[in-house]
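Exercise 7. Given the components listed, write out the predicted structure of the assembled complex. Treat all entries as one system.
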Amino acid sequence: MAKRDYSLQGPDARRAVETGLAAAEWYHTEVPRKVMKDLMQRSDAPAIRDTVILYGCMILFAGLGIALWPSLWSAPFWLAYGVLYGSASDSRWHECGHGTAFKTKWMNDVVYQIASFMIMRNAATWRWSHARHHTDTYIVGRDPEIAVMRPPELAKVILNFFGIIDVIRFFPNLVYNAAFGPTADERTFVPQSEWGRVRRVALVHLSVYVATVALAVWMQSVLPLMVIGLPRLYGAWHHVMTGLLQHGGLADNVIDHRLNSRTVLMNPISRFIYWNMNYHVEHHMFPMVPYHALPRLHDTIRHDLPAPNRSIAEGFREMWPAFRRQLAYEDFFLKRSLPPTAKPYREDLHQISPGTLTPAAPPATAIPAE
Amino acid sequence: MPWINACATDDIDEEDLIRFDHGSQTFAIYHSPEGDFYATAGRCTHEEVHLCDGLVMGHLIECPKHNGQFDYRTGEAKRAPVCVNLRTFPVKVEAGRVFIDIA
Ligand code: FES
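Answer.
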């Protein structure tokens, strides 16, 4: 069994380029051009509605939390505010980063900047890391956004439900970015023309945090941090829960999103917070389709995809045991069966084992998901 | 190089594009909302993905891979992650056919 090296400048990164896994041609379900054009159409209305609801609820919940502070009665409002700040910002960052949420560019840009701040991502850096995530989804050594590396460090995964690992990594990186621009790893995917912007964004974010901490010290109260900063910890759980399901326990080093991404049907509140990214295979196959059209895209191509998980709980029941098996045997992954109407997986394209140039033996390591 | 007879005008819906291959070269031909035709290099300058599956919005073509955008009239890169402009080619329309000058 070969050990994976997730470094963006390491041997697996070089092998991915040499073997043609990097920047490869990926599998797409065939969709007639007219249908796809219709699905790709942009509109401001759904995202304006959702943004008014989101920011309106945030103002309401934070206002009630402040009004009732420091009574325990404020707790439910902080919990609700926290999820919108520390989790809904993830999906807004994502959709507006793609530029598909709104039809109007400045609206995408404004929501993207606000969401990047709340989710603690440098707005300039992460646009590029996410482009790489789409080019090389779960290609070891190439994808900078692999949520759970193998073998999984489950303690870290659990800590991250409270944002702890992300935040511990974020602040030293923020200070480095503010002082020097992108780190060496970030320079592998951020073009040089953008390095100055990375630094400027970091300086703005850092200034807001310094001002918030200064206000908290002056007020002798943690209250300002309950509004800015801390919700990234106490409200992170929802985006971690949904984010893990995107690719957790599935294949890496493949070029078919049906093998490495998961679609999960979920309740309407989670879908609002997650902005329909539960249709994750669909999103990766066709990133041009805006979030509000993903349910229609799902209906259009479901005949060619593995059956979706029917709930978050069902997704976890499938994924968590796979993480545990990967502790002992990191090559293990779940391989979902396709319906008879689907085009089969191209096994010949998925034979490269991480850490080697030799073909792996996928049938021995892949266990069909129930 | 003479003008190349690429396609019929009604091969491309308004506000849409098609792919046109000639020898080893590949192009994208656009039909603007005003009824004009334009031609650019076929592949995105970011990661060489063909633009033919992209979305035409007004005078912009959005790349299907990472949503980078170009103004297809000038080739100007308009939205990250594209930074390098797209090559454009002269176009003329005669007798219902679209010709491009690929010299
Ligand atoms: S390949 Fe076109 S935007 Fe990346």
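Discussion: The first strand of chain B starts at residue 4 and ends at 8. The radius of gyration of chain B is 12 Å.
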